[in-house]
Amino acid sequence: MMIRRLVQLYAGLFVFGISTAMMVRSDFGLNPWDVFHQGVGDRTPLSFGTVVIVTGAIVLLLWIPLRQRPGLGTISNMIVIGLAADFGLWLLSDIESLPVRAALLAGGIFLNGVATSAYIGAGFGPGPRDGLMTGLAARTRWSIRAVRTAIELTVLGVGWALGGTVGLGTILFAVTIGPIVHMLLPYFATRSVSPDETAKA
């Protein structure tokens, strides 16, 4: 069971990074955190994946006053997704064909849902950004949805101001990722999944 969970964790994180690269190359818009990552990457010499890793490390420091405890999945999330995203961007060059870009967007969103279900279902702890959300919710007594909305609107606004891509893909991701994960998570869950974990989707 442990080997299966580890394989599921790292396969999920790797596919998550690849799906992120697919959405970047589609150029139709990204999820809020990736709009932020892209915006920072455009303003610095850092690669997209490096920004993902550095941002994750900074967010992880914010766990300290929230008294959140990282797990193997937390550290792995921070590193593997960034490396996989850079690998995917290296594999996929800029694309001009509209149908191909649309296919990359659709495939990227679906694979992101599969990957999210896999790494959450493995049960090795939340990623840095998810832990920030649940930690703030516990401290402020706000709902998970309210905290998530506040965080994502903030990073979306900052990322857009820095030049990150906001568009149709941003909207499609927002309205479809939750239902995809909700549908697939039971198939990947290696233990019972808490309401907080389900709400991350």
Taken from the alpha-carbon principal axes, the silhouette is globular
Mean pLDDT over the full residue set: 92
The gyration radius over C-alpha positions equals: 16 Å
Span of the ends, CA to CA: 24 Å
The string of secondary-structure elements, in order, is: HHHHHHHHHH
Concise synopsis of the structure shown:
The chain is mainly alpha-helical and 201 residues long. The protein is built from ten helices and no strands.
Q: Which helices and strands appear, and what pairs or packs with what?
A:
Layout: H1 2-26, H2 32-43, H3 48-61, H4 63-66, H5 72-91, H6 98-122, H7 128-140, H8 144-161, H9 168-188, H10 195-199
Helix pairs in contact: 1-5, 1-6, 2-3, 2-8, 3-5, 3-7, 6-9, 7-8
Structure description:
The chain is mainly alpha-helical. 78% of the residues lie in helices and 0% in strands. The chain has helices spanning 2-26, 32-43, 48-61, 63-66, 72-91, 98-122, 128-140, 144-161, 168-188, 195-199. α6 (98-122) packs parallel to α9 (168-188).
Identify the notable features of this structure and list them briefly:
single chain; 201 residues; mainly alpha; 10 helices; 0% strand; globular
